[in-house]
Amino acid sequence: TTEIYTLSLHDALPISEQKQQKFFQGNEGADGITCLATNPTKRYLAVAEKCSTGAIVTIFDLVTTKKRKTLQFSECDAQEFVCIAFSYDSKYLLTQTGPSKDGTSDWTLIYWQWDKARPMASMQVSNAQHAPIRDCSFSPTDSSICCVIGDGIFKFFQQKENSLKQLPGGPETVPSLLCHSWLSDNKLLVCAESGDLWLFDEV
Hints:
The model has no long low-confidence stretch (mean pLDDT about 90). This protein has no helices and 18 strands. The strands form five sheets. Strands 4-5-6-7 form a four-stranded antiparallel sheet, with no helix packed on it. A four-stranded antiparallel sheet has the order 8-9-10-11, with no helix packed on it. Strands 12-13-14-15 form a four-stranded antiparallel sheet, with no helix packed on it. By secondary structure, the chain is mainly beta.
């Protein structure tokens, strides 16, 4: 078992069962870590940092401790990513921005082929009120399908031909949602801010 936590604004520190510590230095000029994610095999660590010139994600190899890739999306001026997620086959990465400086690219979801630092698709995924997005994920059975949840938001998208398209399904009206987790048999467990848990079958 390996635990990972932020030691300061710019460092991520994993601690293994052997009680070994490894430091991962953040990017110069960044304003601090906003979120972390590991791939399913725990080989790679994605560290998102807030930056005035645009949000940054750095992918580290947890075995060699070396940087693999640095991702920055030039088409959006948002300063931070609020959540990130690897696909279950570890080939792709989702990054969800927060508000942008001028408001024209708020809450943009970006679908990456991360090992090539290639953004394959992007889309603003909030609603007309620009409600916050809280969490994003890939379907465990189809890495072209992803889910986002937030304040009154519960949506599914599919990446196809370098674009994201919203899929039908999910309740039309939802409360403020904070996080979610895929279970076996394509079931999805969603937690609301009220403390209620929703279980969706055959998503």
